[in-house]
Amino acid sequence: MTPLSGPADRLLSPAMSSSTVSSTMATATATIVAVAACGVLCAAYQRAWRRAEARDENAPGGRKDGGRWARAPETAESASREHEDVLGVIGNTPVMRVESLSALTGCEIYVKCEFLNPGGSVKDRVALRIVKDALASGALRRGGLCTEGTAGSTGVSLAMVCKALGVECFVAMPDDAAQEKSSLVEAYGARVARVRPVSIANRGHFVNVARREAENARSERGEGGGYFADQFENLANYRAHKDGTGPEIFAQLGEKLDAFVCACGTGGTLAGVGAALRERKPSIRLFLADPQGSGLFNRVCRGVMYTKEEAEGKRLKNPFDTVTEGVGINRITENFKVLLGRSGMLEGAVKVSDAEAVAMSRFVAKHDGLFIGSSSAVNLVSAVRVAQSLGPGHCVCTIACDSGLRHMTKFWSDEYLAAHDLTSRDVADVSLSFLDDNAVTPARCYD
Fold it and tell me: What domains sit in the chain, N to C, each tagged with a CATH number?
């Protein structure tokens, strides 16, 4: 396959004339604007999709099998908010049946299309809830500074939400995160600090850098002048999904839904969606998806927070455990504690390799026209495993967190993957031969 290249690759070239630099910067700027425009178009598409004519039985866009895409029911609140501002189109995203995977497993496999949020990811919901809650409590005021440490998507969403609500934004992120993510944050007018990936115990960790920035702003500006969003520990994250994403999924799929699976970074999505679904149908089974380099799988299935990359003599000074971004972690967050604190909430977990995630992204792009990012690919691998464990005739749902547009310089770059000894497995055939033999492992965290 031909390696992908783009403005970010050329910006790294040491041998460039001043005219080339100017041309490249112009191209890079155009690329950033194009990506941002894509988010606006997605939001416009979502509004049109929810209009009355889009719900007509004869409207275009029906599935090939004669069915229709499921979407959240329009409420009086969502209808009244549609034309207010960019925040009014967050949520109420459609669910899509992944036909290739459904046919191969004999189950119905759905993804909740969170990349259709105006900021381009599931994190729009979290950012909106965190900032609105902070403004309501007085912990943050308009004109104050909201900060966050993130691998990227939350930063983009937070920058968008803050801009719409009249709040300044600062984002710290690891310098190995895809360049397009920090470029998008800056496009919204927020400040970005890219820092070296280190342990959370290190004061230079991106989360700690963001926390200090908020503390400094608060000491300089007074109460409400600086606020640390703290998505990992802030339970507004969990509530955003319990009150929004989860109820939407159940409204769309209803009683036929048998299982929900997704990967965790903060843990808010799985905890919130899981709680909402189990309240409505207690028999729905919840599963964790976990990428390589993360310790959550072992915590859930063996009761010990451990991953082989953490073994003595193995830990790298500058960690590189996975090519996926935004999921996987080696500590227990307050949001994830919701899952551990409710006996029997998790049924099991699936471990997903980078090779499987890369291959899955290429497979659904080729066979379903679904262009997804790395965490979404981890989720789909796990959805297949859950479907296989349950057997034909079941319905499984997961999250498509963001699109591949934010992963062009890493996860979707053949050159980048080759540098890390990763090449996509053959996905030309409509089969699951590109997956490893990993199966769902039962949860033992409640023993």
Answer: 40-122+235-442 (3.40.50.1100), 123-228 (3.40.50.1100)
